Amino acid sequence: MAENQGALNQVKTQLNNAVQLIGDYKGFEKISEVKKGESLVQLIYFVRYDRQPLRFVFLFYKPDDQWRIQNFLFDEKFLED
Length: 81
Known about the structure:
Elements: H1 5-22, E1 25-35, E2 40-49, E3 54-61, E4 68-75
Antiparallel strand pairs: 1-2, 2-3, 3-4
């Protein structure tokens, strides 16, 4: 992600815009942690805001000895996973 600063800035802008609409942060809950082999893990969090929740999905990849974020998204979907 550090190598793609434009995409990172775009995600920050989208999240800031969403938070302005959905209100104050109220907390979070871990929904799932799915290991996909020894080198891939997916974490899903439910984040509570004043007006509505958001789902955050993180995909971490470990090519050698350090984990790095491979993919990240946030949306309003809760029943698909």
